[in-house]
Specification:
mainly alpha, 68% helix, single chain
């Protein structure tokens, strides 16, 4: 399975590169180079591909070989998930740290949030519609759930707070490889962490060195990561047992979280990891800003093909 999946992903990458080359030659509009960091965009694309490989491996293992969700075929494919997600979070910190340094008043918040909404929401809606259709097809036709239950489940999918059963199909989240959890933490970053840190930077001004905020975030992340509240652990353990009981009773495969989604009892550690990864990146950026400008690579107008 490893070789076949690698060949499939390699073929997909070649097709994507060829399509991008043809679209660029055809005059397809691309963002201005001064507004993008081409090398970072390229890196994020490759990281997304690694995570996709990880999820495909989990999905094939469950659907074709009857393995429980979360069982990777090899250590390589297993590590593609957490490594890709962690580095993706770090690149997000890199992209948004300049906004924090400009302070709250120096950020165009309307443009920032509009760009986030139009980048995330359209594809998310298409995804939810596809999962809903497949859930109706695969689910129990005699047990579709009540209108209230389905609306509540759809609300969870829309807010990315969870991926509960849909329209009588208990394993709806597996269709999507349980990937929406990362958007929940992204929105926490956009709606809370980013404005708070920008406000803090504006209040403190130059009274503290540029690396003070990254160091502070790093310390907070490490502190949170070292503490797993017993109450939260018990809550998620109870929820996991309920899900296993419900899926086992309906004949569906018991749901297990993938390594990129995180074990339920480690949710607080996932939050800490997200903050820590961004803090490390911000610290690196803060250190880089103290170096001579010659150290910066020239602007990349387009990605190499």
């Amino acid at each position: 399975m490893d070789a076949g999946l690698l060949i499939a992903v390699g073929s997909a990458l070649l097709i994507a590169l060829l399509a991008g080359h043809l679209l660029a030659r055809a005059g397809f509009p691309v963002p201005e180079a001064r507004k993008r960091i081409g090398c970072v965009d390229g890196l994020r694309g490759y990281l997304a591909l690694l995570v996709m490989m990880h999820h495909c491996d989990l999905w094939i293992a469950q659907t074709q070989f009857g393995q429980p969700w979360g069982a990777s075929s090899s250590l390589l494919f297993h590590n593609f998930g957490p490594a890709g997600v962690a580095l993706f979070f770090m690149t997000t910190g890199l992209v948004f740290y300049p906004r924090i340094r400009r302070g709250f008043q120096g950020v165009d918040w309307r443009a920032t949030y509009l760009s986030r909404v139009f980048r995330i929401l359209p594809l998310q809606l298409v995804l939810i519609a596809a999962v809903s259709g497949l859930s109706i097809y695969l689910g129990d036709p005699f047990n579709r759930g009540t209108v209230r239950q389905n609306l509540s489940a759809l609300a969870g999918w829309l807010t990315t707070h969870g991926e509960p059963p849909l329209f009588g199909y208990d394993n709806a989240g597996a269709i999507n490889a349980f990937v929406l959890w990362s958007l929940w933490y992204e929105w926490i970053f956009y709606l809370f962490v980013l404005p708070v840190l920008s406000l803090l930077r504006g209040v403190l001004g130059d009274r503290l060195p540029p690396f003070a905020i990254p160091v502070g975030c790093l310390l907070v992340g490490l502190t949170i990561g070292s503490i797993t509240p017993p109450v939260m652990a018990a809550k998620w353990e109870r929820k996991l047992k309920e899900e296993i009981a419900s899926t086992s009773g309906s004949g569906a495969q018991p749901r297990k979280a993938s390594s990129t989604r995180g074990a339920p009892e480690m949710v607080s550690r996932k939050q800490a990891t997200t903050l820590t990864m961004k803090a490390i990146t911000w610290l690196e950026v803060a250190a880089e800003t103290q170096a001579p400008m010659e150290r910066y690579a020239p602007a990349i107008k387009k990605l190499p093909i």
